[in-house]
Amino acid sequence: MMSQERFRALFAGAGEASGPGAVLEPPVCPPRRRHGGTPIDLVVGLAIRAALAVQFFSWARANAQPVGDPFDWRAWLAPDAGLAQAASVWTLGRVDPQLAAFVLLAAAMLIGLSLSAGFLTRLAGLFVVLGAIWHVSFVLPGAWPQTLAYGALGLYLALRGAGPASLDWALARLSRMA
Question: The whole model's pTM is what?
Answer without folding.
Answer: 0.75
